[in-house]
């Protein structure tokens, strides 16, 4: 790329640092005139939408510290510079972190995923933050000190990528304890386009008690087939007997508009543990969508803890999610619609998980 501004050329100056410390210094010294750049897929989108390109781009692609994916007994650590396509080629990641993998598969199209990085997504406030929030992940940030510091994903909004601060996202740490070892398989639902949206959110448009209406709407052949497939996968994995402490689950569902290749209108992630009799031993829920900061649904989580997941509980969980979910209006959907859609997604994902226990 050529230079702009001070030297009279067109386009930003590209800086190629050799270490994260050098990248940080380049950003820190230039402030808002410089932007970190990984796959540049989100940056390009913002320029096409009219945002002014920066004077300097700090290219992170060649930094070895941002590469690699490692498992230890306690966590999976993923370098911020890995592309979504690279992560999805790792079979262990798809098997052990199914909600995160489902969220990656739901980002844009395959061509974009070969460039887009996990760090650019999380730092730019993308969809991956939602499953990361639900599994208590940590974001590893370098901010000029001796080493990177771990920031809970619940505080990701403090440092969302932008023109301002120099903090550099080095990687993600997903604790395996929060996920359990008895995973039920690569579950996750992506709901695109008008038909799926209508089926999923018919209740949401209709008015009250929509969460259970939506879940109930999926007790037909489609839901039965999904539940049967899920139960078969659980049985095949030999994990169905983990009844004492419950069976771990990790789910992601996204409502989007395929036609526009747009990010999620609404997406939810659920992570928890369910016993054979349908008692929720643990539940973490996160919800987010385009233009909003993802949030944990703490009141819904509190209501669910230790309770049997029956229709009455699902109704209360749905109401709590609808109450807490604060996504902004956009040209295609209002905030009220998004609240009800988030509630419907959470309730139907839980319902499917309960069906898999039978
Ligand atoms: C057609 C299309 C469809 C898309 N659909 C989706 C979608 O469905 N869901 C979704 O979430 N996104 C979507 N995106 C947006 C984007 O592709 C993804 O969010 C992608 O993962 C961003 O990664 P990147 O490496 O390209 O980030 P970049 O564009 O390089 O950077 C994004 C932001 O993060 C900052 N940044 C990058 N790396 C770091 C770092 N290590 N530390 C600190 N800051 C950093 C940058 O300065 C910038 O502000 C779409 C984009 C396109 C073009």
What does this structure look like?
40% of the residues lie in helices and 20% in strands. The protein is an alpha+beta fold. The strands form three sheets. The chain has a five-stranded antiparallel sheet. Helix 12 packs across helix 15 (335-357). The relative contact order is 0.12. Mean pLDDT is 81; it is low at 1-6, 181-224 and 233-241. Flavin-adenine dinucleotide is lined by residues 35-43, 45, 60, 80, 106-108, 112, 115-117, 119-121, 123-124, 126-127, 161-162, 168-169, 261, 263. The site of flavin-adenine dinucleotide has 32 residues, from strand 2, helix 2, helix 7 and strand 8. Residues 7-179 form the FAD-binding PCMH-type domain. This is FAD binding domain-containing protein. It comes from Paenibacillus sabuli. InterPro entries: CO_DH_flav_C (IPR005107), CO_DH_flav_C_dom_sf (IPR036683), Diverse_Substr_Oxidored (IPR051312), FAD-bd_PCMH (IPR016166), FAD-bd_PCMH-like_sf (IPR036318), FAD-bd_PCMH_sub2 (IPR016169), Mopterin_DH_FAD-bd (IPR002346).
Question: So what's the overall shape?
Answer: globular
Number of strands: 13
CATH class of the largest domain, named Alpha Beta
What distance separates the N and C termini? 58 Å
How many helix segments? 15
On the 0-100 scale, what is the average pLDDT?
81
The class by helix and strand makeup works out as alpha+beta
The largest beta-sheet arranges its strands as 4-5-8-6-7
CATH superfamily of the largest domain: CO dehydrogenase flavoprotein, C-terminal domain
Summary keywords:
alpha+beta, 3 domains, 358 residues, 13 strands, globular, 5-stranded antiparallel β-sheet, disordered N terminus, binds flavin-adenine dinucleotide, 5-stranded mixed β-sheet, Enolase-like, domain 1, Uridine Diphospho-n-acetylenolpyruvylglucosamine Reductase, domain 3, Uridine Diphospho-n-acetylenolpyruvylglucosamine Reductase, domain 2, 20% strand, single chain, 15 helices
